[in-house]
Design brief:
This protein has helices at residues 7-26, 35-46, 52-63, 72-89, 106-109, 112-132, 140-154, 159-168, 176-186, 188-199, 207-234, 237-240, 246-249, 255-278, 287-298; strands spanning 99-100, 103-104. It has 301 residues and is mainly α. It is globular and about 50 Å long.
């Protein structure tokens, strides 16, 4: 995938370190009252992960020349939303998982009620930092557009709606259009929001370039889910950090189930090519976005 000293590997390492520091700063401390809730929030958010969504914020911001310090807040916001979604997805009423990022899920490490509240609090923390943080030195109308973008991507017409479709689809046979509609909402919406939030940090915004970035994000959002589905079939629990084969056990509709492994890989390759094509009008400033697209499709966990 990448060599240890490649530009992409350096970008990943630098941004992952940066977002970890920012997340620690913008979460309530573990001893702040009510301490157990804040401990659960920190356990969930700071306990590893690839940080793909914050990475996309940084990469999109770099592509449009946004000041790096301005990108930390939207990067935190999307990761708080993602962390909350994982806590809730893992609950017994949803996917009923015991393992996440190689550790017990939040409701196993704490308890179910605390996990629900931690997810709720992480969601509101995302909007608090996006609305309040002084580090995000953008015009008021731009900040409002960011809030609108994240809210739409997170709610019933985005991620939460996709999860509802996913739960209703258990045991059902979906066609490719229905499957992609589900994942455009469940996985793709927050990935698209991540790219858009990074782009909105630019000093001046070119709406035509924003449309190309959005198309890029739509393609990699679907490609990310296809690779997740493939890894659920061919991966192992130790490498994935979550229970392998869980989708098959739950009889959930997936790309390999519908298209076969070869067909799923081919669809991911098509989306990867389309994501690169969407960036054709950008120069080397978009190389982190190109590298992330390759990473998403070729990752092993």
């Amino acid at each position: 995938m990448t060599t240890p000293d490649s530009p992409l590997e350096t970008f990943l390492a630098d941004c992952q370190k940066r977002i970890q520091t920012a997340l620690e700063h913008h979460l309530p401390s573990a001893d702040t009252h009510p301490a157990r809730l804040h401990q659960a929030m920190r356990y969930t958010t700071l306990g590893g992960g690839k940080r793909v969504r914050p990475l996309l914020v940084y990469a999109a911001g770099i592509a449009v020349g946004a000041p790096p310090a301005r990108l930390d807040i939207p990067a935190c916001a999307v990761e708080f939303i993602h962390a909350y979604s994982l806590v809730h997805d893992d609950l017994p009423a949803m996917d009923d998982d015991d393992l996440r990022r190689g550790r017990p899920t939040c409701h196993r490490a704490f308890d179910e009620a605390t996990a629900i509240l931690a997810g709720d609090a992480l969601q509101t923390q995302a909007f608090y930092v996006l609305a309040h943080a002084r580090e995000l030195d953008v015009a008021a109308n731009t900040r409002l557009r960011m809030l609108e973008t994240l809210a739409l991507a997170s709610g019933s017409r985005g991620m939460a709606g996709g999860q509802a479709i996913d739960l209703a689809a258990v045991g059902q046979t979906l066609d490719i259009a229905q499957l992609e509609d589900m994942h455009i909402h469940k996985t793709g919406a927050l990935i698209r929001a991540s790219v858009l939030l990074g782009a909105l940090c630019a000093d001046t915004l070119d709406e035509a370039r924003l449309k190309h970035l959005d198309h890029y994000a739509k393609c990699i959002g679907l490609a990310f889910q296809i690779q997740d589905d493939i890894l659920d079939v061919i991966g192992d629990t130790a490498t994935l950090g979550k229970t392998a084969g869980a989708d098959t056990v739950r009889d959930k509709p997936t790309y390999p189930a519908l298209l076969g492994l070869d067909g799923a890989r081919q669809r991911a390759a098509e989306l990867l090519a389309a994501s690169h094509a969407a960036l054709a009008g950008f120069g080397p400033e978009a190389d982190p976005l190109r590298g992330l697209a390759d990473y998403i499709v070729k990752r092993e966990s």
